[in-house]
Amino acid sequence: MKDPLPGTGTGDELGPKNKPIEFVDDGEFRHLDYWNSFQFDPPLTHDDCLKIASLARELGYQMLFRRADYSLEEVQEQLLDRGPGSFLNFTWLQEDISPKEPPKSAEQRMAERMSRLSPTEHLLITDPYLFTSGRKRDSQDYAASVVKMIRPALTASLNITAIVNPTQNDNEVRTAVLNELHAQGFHLDISVVESHDFHDRFWIADRARGFVSGSSLNKIGSRIFFVDELSESDVRDVVAEADAIIDQR
Fold first, then answer.
1. Is the pLDDT assigned to residue 105 strictly greater than 50?
2. Is the bond leading into 20 cis (omega within 30 degrees of zero)?
3. N vs C: which end of the chain shows fewer Cβ within 10 Å?
4. Which DSSP helix (H) or strand (E) runs through 113?
5. How confident is the prediction for the chain on average, in pLDDT?
6. Distance of CA 111 to the CA centre of its chain
7. pLDDT tens readout for residues 230-239
8. How far apart are CA 240 and CA 29, in angstroms?
């Protein structure tokens, strides 16, 4: 009698006859009985994983996922959409971030994130260094860069409140940025409020949703930064603090 292909029964059909048994992971990818789990060292590349899966099918095996995690593309997309906070409940994650195409510029990434924020009535910005004197020598270029990032979030008659550090509220830089924003033709209503109380960069739309940026807009592109989605409770806390500052004016 001819031996069946590995992973098959004695019939003509291919594929494993039994589902993987339940087991408790001991941290070393080991368990007993007929099924086993392995890891590759170093981790498989995307292309090599596809080659191994193809060879496994030829031999009559199936490569089955032991856990429903994310593909590399899904991880990258969720990091861009919602930030690292969306993964905090996961206990194990290992990815080799190797995009197939050159990364988009930091300005493009921030602009995409702004478009998903999509405010309809109000946009709250807390960025202590938004109008920093450090951009005085290239204020026009900086203003164009800021508007390039913010423009996808602009709508007609949008009310914008920007809370900045009073020691970094440079008149020349502020004027350049505001002029560039008004030149977009959205009839924006922009208020600039000075306060020492905010140190983080929050962007909140319609008092309901927002994100925190690890870098001021004036540093986007010059350093690594993150953007993380805020929870509803965080949004409420930031809005309440901003309201208190604005009411004190």
1. yes
2. no
3. N
4. helix 106-117
5. 77
6. 12
7. 889 999 999 9
8. 48
**Spatial contact of 29 and 37, defined as CB atoms under 8 Å apart:** yes
What pTM value is reported for the model?
0.61
CATH number of the domain enclosing 192: 3.30.870.10
Does 73 fall in a domain? Answer: no
Domain that holds residue 32: 1-68
For residue 80, is pLDDT > 90?
no
181 located within any domain:
yes
Are the beta carbons of 30 and 66 closer than 8 angstroms?
no
pLDDT score for 4: 42
pLDDT above 60 (res 98): no
Give per-residue pLDDT as tens, 43-52. Answer: 777 678 778 8
Contacts of residue 64, defined as CB under 8 A and 6 or more positions apart, other chains included, come to 16, 20
Q: Which amino acid makes up residue 123?
A: L
Task: With beta carbons less than 8 A apart as the criterion, state whether 207 and 155 touch.
Answer: no
Are 232 and 186 contained in the same domain? yes
The pLDDT value recorded for residue 67 is: 45
CA 6/CA 200 separation, integer angstroms: 58
